[in-house]
Design brief:
Largest sheet of chain A: none
Strand content of chain A: under 5%
CATH architecture of chain A: Orthogonal Bundle
Radius of gyration of chain A: 26 Å
Strand order of the largest sheet of chain B: 2-1-3-10-4
CATH superfamily of the largest domain in chain B: Periplasmic binding protein-like II
Structural class of chain B: alpha+beta
Helix content of chain B: 40-55%
CATH class of chain A: Mainly Alpha
Number of strands of chain B: 10
Number of domains of chain A: 1
CATH topology of chain A: MetI-like fold
Helix content of chain A: over 70%
Strand content of chain B: 5-15%
CATH architecture of the largest domain in chain B: 3-Layer(aba) Sandwich
Number of helices of chain B: 21
Number of domains of chain B: 2
Distance between the termini of chain B: 82 Å
Largest interface: A-B, 30 and 34 residues
Structural class of chain A: mainly alpha
Oligomer: heterodimer
Order of helices and strands of chain A: HHHHHHHHHHHHHHH
Largest sheet of chain B: 5 strands, mixed
Number of strands of chain A: 0
CATH class of the largest domain in chain B: Alpha Beta
Radius of gyration of chain B: 25 Å
CATH superfamily of chain A: MetI-like
CATH topology of the largest domain in chain B: D-Maltodextrin-Binding Protein, domain 2
Number of helices of chain A: 15
């Protein structure tokens, strides 16, 4: 009965609902081919002996040997992998903490109705600008700015009397890591700030008005109203930054090539070096990717766990 | 009615295409892959007009970010005998050894090359195009020997040297090279440096070794390399270089005459495409010979001030080889094999053409006999070198350089050696034993297919 009815309905009028699926199909097809399949392929490759292109499609499964090497302190890759992870975390930390702080301050200034900044659009665009440039270009730019012995920074320091001798920035661990952190900070602060502004703008303005009427200072408003209410945005920012930070590749690769002494070698660079140079150890590169995947998941869950306070239900219910 | 009509039209279209296709069958189809359009340009200009029977499909993928090798590896690894797979593909110095050692590239003798034909290639280029068993798998239209370029005015001012012959005596081996560097420092009171950086001499010095990096699947650190480290350290610590790296501001500044750097060790392409377009502030590769000279004269450049000598070691740097796809060559019929042979022969060993090309492009060609003929024509003065004939000097290096010193993983190992040994050791950050141990550990971690002791 129902069948007959739908059949007649279809004949008379066209159902548009299935076109929705057509529109989302391209995404899912691309996703399946270029993301989901490669992810499974990586998992599989991490369990094989795939060394060299010849063995990418034609290999045999050897179990968890690659993972054993990554976790076995006596193996050759152990110190390189975990060293790279340490570098990545250090570089990420010194980029992220100032970035979050700066973005929060800027966002609260831009949204503060009492300060009411003029030419906001100009400032926002200027701060966001570095994010538009390709990371590789910025890496090359900083490399030539800070190179040795003749380069803009060294010349400036010598002519202005700040130094007698040129400094070899990229042989110093602190400078090399510091510059990478700085570039990351400089590139991403604008982006984080925009997201924060969006988050703060989403807060009901009557809350701020009420606080103003009650005589709150700007600082009190920030700590007691803005910050607690943009926590979901903070979690989002922390998580995306963690993912971006742990997979950091282009700036260190272009600028320092992991030097000096592997202190700027990141996990993504370790994976690249394993997979695309030397004997092309795709198996080890895949295993390291899987471990990194696990670390990122644990990190993201930890962020959620730490930032979601224990009695959120009540607070949310009040809204 | 409409349906019938459209069906007929569609059929006609299909039939039309098929008949065109069958007309094309007489042509021999070759797929050629490369990473620049250099070979395509040469084939279209010099070869295709006389070979109407050929239908060549070109594919060009850049080497940036390993795009070319990834493409080749993917296709040869999965469908080497497919229609789209290359019949002939070019190989760059950085990865030529990897491919000639693999089973993907075919023995050139299988498409009809003979020992007599192969004997006319420059040994260094032929050796690099061979696998470790001595099977010839790649041939090149060019040869890329290196030499030492120096600035005549500085040599005369500080060392009192007036002719290239005298200067060659000053750099005849690496010990003398170092002595000259010390002398230069003393006489110029530190104003003029021997080279830009210790890394500048690596490309030449590696030909001083007696064995490649990998012998019988084992990593070998040749004793000469330890001498190389001592030489570099002395150069660096005694302040005999500009302390800059190649391809940096400092390096180019010396070419422009902005700082006083006496020597550059560069190959054929380095002379034409690196040194010459950078001979003065404001100079570029787009300028003609006269314009370059003018810019150089106006800006205190170095045009005409350079001279060339063989230097301490005969070496070769760079190059492009043509190889064949073993899987497709195996199933090719005789006509196709002959076509492949003829094409590769024409561009790598055909003396008449190579002679023409040497005149047209100034490139240093790959056949020893063609170079002999070129030299026999008499002097070809190069105004950039103050009238010296660069061909004569490159010819000496090309004849002497030892191509058997190259091995499959050179690219990776060279850069690891620089990062883990040369840089930290010459800068005095670590002692040599620590450096070597770290280098070996890095090689072992990155190249799991060789043994490291």
């Amino acid at each position: 009965m129902q069948n007959v009815q739908t059949k007649t309905v279809r004949k008379k009028s066209i159902s548009y609902s299935r076109y929705g699926y057509f529109f989302i199909a391209p995404f899912f097809i691309t996703f399946l081919i270029f993301q989901l399949y490669p992810i499974f392929f990586t998992f599989r490759t991490s369990l094989t002996d795939a060394v060299g292109w010849e063995k990418v499609l034609n290999n045999s499964i050897i179990g968890f040997e690659n993972f054993r090497q990554l976790f076995d302190p006596s193996s050759l890759v152990y110190s390189k992998f975990w060293g790279a992870l340490g570098n990545t975390v250090i570089i990420w930390f010194f980029n992220f903490v100032p970035q979050l702080g700066m973005a929060l301050i800027l966002a609260s200034w831009f949204t503060d109705s009492r300060i009411h900044l003029k030419a906001q659009g100009f400032f926002k665009v200027t701060i966001f600008m570095p994010n538009i440039i390709t990371a590789a270009t910025i890496g090359m730019l900083f490399m030539s700015l800070f190179s040795f012995p003749v380069a803009p920074i060294n010349t400036f320091m010598q002519t202005s009397g700040m130094a007698n001798m040129p400094t070899e920035f990229f042989r110093s661990v602190a400078w090399s890591r510091g510059l990478i952190s700085f570039i990351q900070w400089w590139m991403w602060t604008g982006n984080t700030m925009i997201v924060m502004i969006a988050g703060i703008s989403g807060i009901n303005p009557s809350l701020f008005e009420a606080a103003l009427v009650d005589g709150c200072t700007s600082r009190q408003i920030f700590w007691k109203i803005t910050l607690p209410l943009i926590k979901p945005i903070l979690i989002y920012n922390l998580t995306t930054s963690l993912v971006g930070g742990l997979t950091m590749f282009d700036i260190p690769h272009m600028m320092t090539q992991g030097n000096p002494n592997e202190t700027t070698n990141t996990v993504a660079r370790f994976i690249y070096m394993q997979g695309f140079t030397g004997s092309r150890n795709f198996n080890m590169a895949s295993a390291a990717s899987v471990v990194l995947f696990g670390i990122i998941i644990i990190g993201s869950l930890l962020i959620r766990y730490l930032l979601n306070d224990r009695e959120p239900k009540q607070a949310k219910g009040g809204k | 009615m409409k349906k019938v009509l459209s069906l007929v039209l569609a059929l006609a279209l299909v039939l039309g295409c098929m008949s065109f296709a069958s007309a094309d069958d007489a042509k021999i189809k070759l797929v050629v892959w490369s990473f620049t359009n250099e070979l395509q340009g040469m084939i279209e200009k010099y070869y295709l007009p006389d070979h109407p029977e050929l239908d060549i499909e070109f594919q060009i993928y850049p080497t940036d970010g390993n795009a070319y090798t990834t493409k080749v590896d993917n296709l040869l690894g999965s469908a080497a005998d497919s229609e789209e797979a290359p019949d002939i593909f070019t190989l760059e110095a950085a990865f030529v050894k990897h491919y000639v050692e693999s089973d993907w590239t075919g023995d050139l003798k299988t498409i009809g090359f003979t020992d007599e034909e192969l004997a006319t290639a420059f040994p260094v280029m032929a050796q690099i195009g061979q696998n470790s068993a001595g099977v010839q798998k790649g041939l090149s239209w060019q040869s890329t020997p290196g030499a030492l370029m120096y600035r005549a005015s500085l040599a005369e001012k500080y060392l009192g040297v007036t002719t290239p012959e005298e200067f060659q005596e000053k750099v005849k081996d690496w010990d003398t090279f170092l002595e000259t560097a010390e002398e230069l420092k003393e006489k110029s009171e530190g104003a003029c440096k021997m080279v830009t950086g210790s890394g500048d001499i690596w490309n030449a010095y590696q030909y001083q070794r007696s064995q490649p990096w990998v012998v019988d699947g084992k990593l070998v650190v040749d004793d000469e390399l330890l001498d190389f480290e001592e030489l570099c350290k002395t150069l660096e610590q005694d302040d005999l270089t500009q302390k800059g790296a190649a391809w940096t501001e400092t390096w180019f500044a010396g070419m422009q005459g902005v700082n006083e750097t006496l020597c550059y060790l560069l190959p054929t392409w380095g002379l034409h495409y690196t040194l010459k377009p950078n001979c003065a502030p404001g100079a570029s590769g787009d300028l003609s010979e006269e314009e370059l000279k003018k810019v150089s004269d106006e800006n205190n450049g170095t045009y005409g001030d350079w001279r060339m000598v063989e230097g301490p070691t005969a070496y070769s740097w760079g190059g492009t080889w043509m190889g064949i796809n073993a899987a497709k060559a195996a199933v090719a019929d005789d006509a196709k094999k002959a076509a492949m042979h003829d094409l590769i022969y024409f561009f790598s060993l055909n003396e008449d053409w190579l002679l023409t090309y040497a005149h047209d492009s100034g490139d240093f060609v790959g056949s020893a006999t063609a170079v002999e003929k070129y030299l026999a024509e008499g002097d070809h003065p190069n105004p950039f070198l103050g009238g010296q004939d660069h061909y004569a000097i490159f010819a000496k290096a090309a004849a002497l350089a030892n191509g058997s010193l190259m091995s499959e993983y050179d690219d990776t190992i060279n850069s690891l050696f620089n990062d883990y040994v040369t840089t930290p050791y010459t800068k005095g950050e670590k002692d040599l034993d620590t450096c070597l141990a770290e280098f070996k550990a890095a090689v072992a971690a990155q190249i799991t297919t060789i043994t490291v002791e």
